[in-house]
Amino acid sequence: MKIIDLRSDTITLPTDEMRRAMYDAELGDDVFGDDPTVKRLEALAARMLAKEAALFVPSGTMSNLVAILTHTRPGDEIIVGSESHIFWYEVGGASTLGGVVLRTVPNEADARLDPAAVAQAIRPENIHFPHTTLLCLENTHNRCGGAALTVEYTAAIAELAHGHGLMVHLDGARIFNAAVALGVPAEKLTAPVDSVGFCISKGLSAPVGSLLCGTGDFISRARKWRKMLGGGMRQVGVIAAAGIVALQTMVDRLAEDHTTARRLADGLAGIPGMGINPAEIQTNIVIFESPETMSGPEFIQRLSEQGVKVINRGGRTVRAVTNRMVSTADIAEALERISSVVKNR
Ligand SMILES: *Cc1c(COP(=O)(O)O)cnc(C)c1O
Question: Cα separation of 273 and 255, whole Å?
Answer without folding.
Answer: 29
